[in-house]
Amino acid sequence: MIDRRKFLTTVALGTASAAFLSACGQSSSSGQTGSADNPVTITYTWWGNDDRAERTRKAIALFESKNPDIKVNGNFSDFAGYWQKRATEAAGGGLPDVMQWDLSYLRDYGQRNQLLDLGTVKINTDAFEKSLLPSGQIRGKTYGIPTSTNAFAVYYDPAKLASLGIAEPDGSWNYKEFNAFLAEVGAKGNGTLFGGTDYTGIWWNFNIWLRQNNIQAFTEDGKLGFSKDDLKKWWNLTADLRGTGAIVGEDKATQLLPKSPFGSNVTATEVTWDNFMAGYLADSGAKELKLVPVPSDDPDNLGLFLKPSMLMVASAKTKYKDAAARFIDFMVNDPEVGQIFKTSRGVPASKTQRDGTTFEGTDKLVVDYEKSIEKYLKDAPEPPIVGFGTLESTFKRVTQDLNYGKLTVDGAADAWFKEAEDLIKQNA
Amino acid sequence: MTQSPTLSRRSASAPTPPRKSRRRGADARAGYTFLLPWLLGFIALTVGPMISSLYLSFTNYNLFDAPKWIGFDNYVTLFQDERFLQSVGVTMNYVIFGTPLKLAAALAIAMLLNSKRKGQGFYRSAFYAPSLIGASVSIAIVWKAMFGDSGPVDQGLSFFGINLGGWVGNPNMTMGMMILLTVWQFGAPMVIFLAGLKQIPADLYEAASMDGAGPVRKFLNITWPMLSPVIFFNLLMETIHAFQIFASAYIISNGEGGPAGSTLFYTLYLYLRGFSDFRMGYASAMAWLLVIVVGIITLIFFKTSKSWVHYSGDAK
């Protein structure tokens, strides 16, 4: 039997000890170089699915065969986990040498001196649109080189629309017409096919709507450029559609993760970036998917822009600056890399790479789409404010709560603004 | 839990009371020498980070810049943070309903397995198996598939005319799903219960039978009081364990605590604040608040234990 004294002297202490360690790394000023006999090894990490992993591995193999003095160690994860890993590595001073990067996180790391100023190394940017490069620059320093561009679009599956007897849209629509279209799909889809997902849940779509109404999302000094009323107006756009067949319910969408409802053949349309084409085709098994512009109440201002779909960055602490720069240069400029990725990273940003790539089939659709909206395109957005990644995910989460009926539009706007103001104050 | 083996070993090998103080000093030296490797690890890997996280909890720290001292701001902000309050609610729900259910299941199975029957060894292993794999990622994924739309659970219930749809996407059902997952992992407390049951002298039951006591009577008057230290130990451990739920919630909700915040457990929110939002000071404050709350609850358990936990040698 257990006796009291022995038992009680052993006090059980439950701890939620989160080990928050911080350490400092050392940086060396001169980049080390290797030779064919004694190559240097750089690490490279990216986010994406198996398809991208396969393509990236091919590109790395090609790079290594052309640069025998450099070896590249590749590693990848999904998008959400990707940033948690980078945060931990940055705290420990061990970011990979070269990384695929997203615009949303460029300020977080760039302004905090975690990324290498690529202006100090040799990367050829002659073949880039001059309007695109600033999106990788902060306060005159270049932290990221865009690999490719993407633009917002409405995807639809022509076969699904045909089976319901609905005419294909031409993309000249306002929000009312777009809503009516979604509702029609929902009504005819009869519970098995929904119109789309709630398009008000995506930050970038809201950003486009703001541009259509000539409102800036963020001010120069890193504050919000729009009001709570603007946000309420936005979330009210689909108020009548929520809970109907026009929008797939959040309970369904949640279960399909990590696939999207569109990729799972549950919806007929999706509003998102045009470089998701390859992923959607692979997920859904659809024969063909088409792209049309997003709705706008002002037919002359679609609010569209080309965004760097991803950037290449290097760690500020890399020991192999030269090797990192050569790898980045290769990934963004080499025509053969373009042939490997096609449009799965977006449309190649470098003209050298774009011209060296043959686009066929669906890849051509994406390139053609970006050409077709050329006259509506405005300047690429500045890198968003520090902590933007949080705001973006909060935006999505709050819209999900709206769809679950856990929040009203007013409550949702309050919740998001509180988070945003809190964050801006934190980083001030 | 790492504490349980330590505890049981110490209580099992109850040493003879020390007689000579000289012997005692030498013993202590040898003891500490043997403890040293563990002690060093404990100080470097547990105490050190805990102290630094205590400091960080009073700062605004984003991982990149030097921590900025802000006093109790983090702790004050916590109580105005609706998601924090939601995470407290979710976790309390889980602890209050999940822990007793799990212990009841563990005790019931332990009592079934305590009888002398052929193949008991097999059954014991079989019932323990879920706990070996239960905390793993794969089970959380299987769970997610089982409770999805048209998953086995949905179909099984539909067969009986209960149409709930998928549980995974329904904010009102996810807690039930999480609790079922923890109840299913009753193995660890079950093994401890089983060991406790074996310690109860059989002659007590024989005497009770002679006096005409039924099974309920025997349970209430013999099993429960004789087992009470073990029950207390399991209750304490499982409660603490429940507060720390993370992995399964992380997998089932894709690390977001959804749907609609219904699986936003305390540690998950802590993690999101720290590693998604880079608010390490805030996350540290949450961690320390949890340590304090769990400490208080443990203390309350110990205080109330006097009235219902019976140890051998206690005057009754």
UniProtKB/TrEMBL annotation, chain A:
Keyword Secreted: no
Alphabetized InterPro entries for the sequence: Bact_solute-bd_prot1 (IPR050490), SBP (IPR006059), TAT_signal (IPR006311), TAT_signal_bac_arc (IPR019546)
This protein's record includes keyword Metal-binding: no
Keywords: Signal
Signal peptide as annotated in the record: 1-23
SUPFAM superfamilies: Periplasmic binding protein-like II (SSF53850)
PANTHER family per the UniProt record, alphabetical: ABC TRANSPORTER SUBSTRATE-BINDING PROTEIN, ARABINOSE-BINDING PROTEIN-RELATED
Designated name of the protein: Carbohydrate ABC transporter substrate-binding protein
Protein source organism: Paenarthrobacter nitroguajacolicus
TrEMBL record, chain B:
Keyword Transport: yes
InterPro entries on file: ABC_transporter_permease, MetI-like, MetI-like_sf
Keyword Cytoplasm: no
PROSITE patterns (UniProt xref): ABC_TM1
Composition skew (Polar residues), residue ranges: 1-14
Annotated GO CC locations: plasma membrane
Primary location recorded for the protein, binned into one broad class: membrane
Residue numbers spanned by region Disordered: 1-25
Pfam families, sorted: BPD_transp_1 (PF00528)
Classification via SUPFAM superfamilies: MalF N-terminal region-like, MetI-like
GO biological process: transmembrane transport
Keywords (A to Z) from UniProt: Cell membrane, Membrane, Transmembrane, Transmembrane helix, Transport
Membrane-spanning segments: 30-58, 94-113, 125-143, 175-197, 280-302
Subcellular location: Cell membrane
Similarity comment text for this entry: Belongs to the binding-protein-dependent transport system permease family.
Protein name as catalogued: Sugar ABC transporter permease
Organism of derivation: Paenarthrobacter nitroguajacolicus
